[in-house]
């Protein structure tokens, strides 16, 4: 055991990163539990496009495992990947149902988008984009992701619900789901104050157990171990003949845009919070991390699912102390295990994961205090980014509005020398995207 631990330490650099085997394992379990909902939600969304839901469960788990495994073993960073929320809805409800394309055509567009993603990464275009995001906007993206994650937790638990008159309103505070989420939030906070290792994970587990008598946690009956559904109905179902239409080019560009800037925003925001930038202000092994994302998208298309992207829920594991690829390796293994233990993993309710997401959102806010509020040309674009990211429900759109406001304010204020040429080019592309 000692030899194995030493080998793991050397490969992932645990000692150099100031972490331990136990910390990384707990961090990986925590990340997985906060994002395991994708195993149920992704098949439900893509199933509305006419795809086989059982096969989609397998495709979701396998594509997530493969992409996260690449992140773990090559990039050696504590980020997990899975089919992205939002972009899967675009796949099903806009491309297939709205535009009338077959889901096979949509999968073909996803595959081509992933191929373009690989080329842009190989040419270091994505690396240039990351470095072109100004420092104040990096801090704002981190804080904005924090609000976004907390917002997701509040929604999932029913604390915040839709309102026809004011868009959002308070949910039913007396409902078991809300009470368990709020109780879990207080419990997890107390564990953190008392400096209990694995506080987020323990909070989720306790809330899951408490939810059993209230009917919130659905205890599986029958066999807990089963073979995964066949992936055949969605595997390698491409239709290259249909990609010559003009609107498919728009679909490919949209997939590429959202996938790219969701990933860039997640990497920048979480790395800023975790202080993972090197002495030059760059993300370590960022090219390998971007390859993991783009190759994951291609693999996901082959397996039969929408674009795979880096998950903001990775911040939950990092908040638990995860610093290396061992965290993401743990997530990848759990995704593979979920193929055979789906009833066990799916019993954790949203009310139990919500407290972790809300607290992680709180943790992610701290970089915003680094912004110079006496410099309006930097503080205001950062504020725009912070606000637009959760309210548009899109990391990509938050970055778009942040970059555009940053460049316009700097240029019109006579501070053009403070803006890099790449940032200006980005702003022009964003403006064209909004116009079209």
Key descriptive features of the protein:
436 residues; mainly alpha; two-stranded antiparallel ribbon; 20 helices; 67% helix; globular
What does this protein structure show overall?
This protein has helices at residues 2-12, 14-17, 21-35, 38-47, 53-75, 87-98, 103-122, 125-132, 135-157, 176-193, 199-210, 246-273, 286-303, 314-319, 325-338, 342-345, 350-364, 376-391, 395-412, 421-435, and strands at residues 81-83, 160-163, 167-170, 308-310. By secondary structure, the chain is mainly α. It has a two-stranded antiparallel sheet with strand order 1-4. A two-stranded antiparallel ribbon has the order 2-3. Helix 18 runs antiparallel to helix 19 (395-412).
How would you describe the shape? globular
Mean pLDDT: 86
Number of domains: 1
State the helical fraction. 55-70%
Number of strands: 4
Strand neighbour order, sheet with most strands: 1-4
Radius of gyration: 21 Å
Poorly predicted ranges: none
Number of DSSP helical runs: 20
Sheet having the most strands: 2 strands, antiparallel
Helix/strand structural class: mainly alpha
Distance between the termini: 59 Å
Helix and strand run:
HHHHHEHHHHEEHHHHEHHHHHHH
Beta-strand residue fraction: under 5%
């Amino acid at each position: 055991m000692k030899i194995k631990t030493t080998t793991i330490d050397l490969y992932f650099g645990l000692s150099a990163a100031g972490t331990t085997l136990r910390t990384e394992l707990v961090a990986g379990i925590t990340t997985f539990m906060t994002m395991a909902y994708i195993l149920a939600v992704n098949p439900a969304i893509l199933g509305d496009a006419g795809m086989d839901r059982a096969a989609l469960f397998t495709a979701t788990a396998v594509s997530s495992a493969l992409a996260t495994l690449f992140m773990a073993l090559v990039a050696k960073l504590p980020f997990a990947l899975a089919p992205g929320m939002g972009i899967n809805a675009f796949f099903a409800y806009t491309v297939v149902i709205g535009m009338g394309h077959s889901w096979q055509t949509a999968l073909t567009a996803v595959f081509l988008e992933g191929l373009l993603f690989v080329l842009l990464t190989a040419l270091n275009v994505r690396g240039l984009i990351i470095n072109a995001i100004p420092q104040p906007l990096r801090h704002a993206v981190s804080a904005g992701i924090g609000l976004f994650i907390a917002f997701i937790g509040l929604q999932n638990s029913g604390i915040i619900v839709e309102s026809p008159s004011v868009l959002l309103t308070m949910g039913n505070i007396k409902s078991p789901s809300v009470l368990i989420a709020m109780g879990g939030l207080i419990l997890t906070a107390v564990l953190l104050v008392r400096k209990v290792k694995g506080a987020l994970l323990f909070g989720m587990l306790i809330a899951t157990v408490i939810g059993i008598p209230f009917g919130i946690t659905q205890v599986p009956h029958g066999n807990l171990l089963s073979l995964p559904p066949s992936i055949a109905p969605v595997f390698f179902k491409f239709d290259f003949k249909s990609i010559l239409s003009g609107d498919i080019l728009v679909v490919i560009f949209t997939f590429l845009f959202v996938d790219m800037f969701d990933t860039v925003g997640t990497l920048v925001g979480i790395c800023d919070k975790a202080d993972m930038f090197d002495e030059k202000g760059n993300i370590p092994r960022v090219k390998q991390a971007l390859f993991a994302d783009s190759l994951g998208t291609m693999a996901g298309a082959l397996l039969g699912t929408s674009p795979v992207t880096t998950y903001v829920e990775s911040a939950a594991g990092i908040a638990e102390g995860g610093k290396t690829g061992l965290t993401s390796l743990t997530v990848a293994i759990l995704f593979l295990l979920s193929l055979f233990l789906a009833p066990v993993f799916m019993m954790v309710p949203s009310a139990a994961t919500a407290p972790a997401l809300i607290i992680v959102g709180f943790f992610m806010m701290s970089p915003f205090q680094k912004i110079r509020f006496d410099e309006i040309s930097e503080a205001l674009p950062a504020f725009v980014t912070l606000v637009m990211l959760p309210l548009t429900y899109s990391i990509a759109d938050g970055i778009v509005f942040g970059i555009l406001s940053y460049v316009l304010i700097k240029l019109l204020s006579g501070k053009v020398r403070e803006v890099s040429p790449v940032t200006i080019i980005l702003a022009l592309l964003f403006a064209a995207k909004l116009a079209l």
